[in-house]
Known about the structure:
Number of domains: 2
Strand order of the largest sheet: 4-12-11-10-7-5-6
Distance between the termini: 46 Å
Structural class: alpha/beta
Number of strands: 17
CATH class of the largest domain: Alpha Beta
Helix content: 25-40%
Number of helices: 13
Order of helices and strands: EEEHHHEHEHHEHEEEHEEEHHHEEHEEEH
CATH superfamily of the largest domain: Type I PLP-dependent aspartate aminotransferase-like (Major domain)
Strand content: 15-25%
Amino acid sequence: MLKYLRFYEERGLRVEKALNQYVWDVEGRKYLDMHTCHGVAFLGHGNPHIVEALKTQLSKLMVTSTSFSTSVMDEMLGALSKVVPEKFQYVTLLNSGSEAVELALKIAKRMTGRKSLVAFTSSFHGRTLGALSVTHNPRYRKDFEPLIPNVKFGRFNDAEALDDLITEETAGVIVEVVQGEGGVNLATHEFIRELRRRTYEVGGLLIIDEVQTGFGRTGKVWAHEYYSIQADVLLAGKALGGGFPVSAVFMPGDIASKVMRGDHGSTYGGNPLACAAVKASAELLVRESVPAKAEAAGYELLKALRSELDGVKVVRSIRGLGLMAGIELRFLPSPVLRCAQEGGVLLLKAGATVVRLLPPYMISKEDIRWCTDVVKECLQRLSSRIT
Length: 387
């Protein structure tokens, strides 16, 4: 009998079904999902609009190459155009965030003819070899080196260092305006503004990775909208397909015109089911005013966390944007994740010492109370053991 090779820690929970912000185990116990498969289920588990779109498409056409045109792709492009900045005239669909990063790095090199790339401390852009080359954490990198050469890492939020870091040899700079895996770290406005200025100045591409932040989670459709700048290449994933595996690379016409046939490819990229899922997700985003609801719910979540955890000695800080929250602790977060799971709340970690919360947009005030009560009890219990 085969065994599944897991790359993530076994949580000791057998999930049987899910709906909206909740999952149930095989014994029928209900859990509040603040994990959502690393943020994928932001639009809710089994959202009826997305499920119906997939079922309808499945009955018509399941797979075809993008060498051929399909009606569902045209419909997807129309729906997606309503939620993407007008600057971006082209999009290509892939299957994962890492794949989107891979293509973006290749585009930067193709567009500029240069070899050097820039990323930042605490960044996370994926685990394939190219994406790993611009991911900072040595724990992910060390056993797989040498990776792509000519990658420099600058200090995240160090605006003053950008002039020396980004030069006329820089093909592209990749950045998350809110670092998810790295610890829910928010970029400062000065840093992003200077990053945009410097990349314009030297002719390098600014690649904004919104695989986790994009599609409404932070209270705007795209988190970089808070910074009043435009990317050269924009990456999306996770919530983009409402649970269906898909990612996207957006680019303007002048960049798309430099990409040659054969520069990239994907057997499943842009398949009809992915197009149907993205179309339905984009429609839902507009129809349900998802970013506004995420902004309001995120405000309530962060307010509750700061109020309830004020004075808990093991908490260093609480930070976040929209429905992307982090609780930085004075110890490793694994015991908190286990304790919260026992209390019916599923969380995940970020960085070395951060508990991360990535709930769906329909989370209620009752859910927020449930979450904060469980987290507070766990932290107080663990605090008493440590002190």
